[in-house]
Amino acid sequence: MVYKEKEPLEILATDFAMPSATRAKRPVHQTLFTFHRRGTMSESVSDADLVERFPWTQITHDSKHHFRGWLDKQLLINRCGDCSKFHHPPKPVCPDCWSENLVPTAIDGKGTVHLAMHLHQGAPAPGVDYAQGPHPVVTVDLDGASGVRFSSTVVDLPVEEVVIGLPVELDWVERYGHPFPVFRKRGG
Asked: What average pLDDT does the chain have?
């Protein structure tokens, strides 16, 4: 299924500062979703084009901003405009206070490995060769986004050094012809 955008989502930043009572009267699709800086790569990408650029994952109305951030090499995590809590994966409402006032927020991607797996087999993916040894997959507790964990891989580090507690930082590689978030050992 291809999502077709009904109308452009062009809301000024001042809309997020409106009182909740005023914001609640507007349709959700007109209230929540403008956050990109002018002149970014993702600004000109329609929803349908976004789905075509990332065919290996499901993109929904709730997650499209997260993936648009990838095109600009930004990790965007939803933050509630009312209770200020971060949550991931993207959802249509804040899981803590049920507010629809969600603001995709760029974070720096520094964190600590919470879970480390060494995969010996799996689906084919660019840059992954199971014949050379296990492929590390990690879940990282993100600093500055309390309670949020993000999963990816660690690059440029021997697999035996990818362990729980490892301090990491976000980096980007090309996969499927587009930016893909990965982690590197912090300071390494």
From this structure: 81
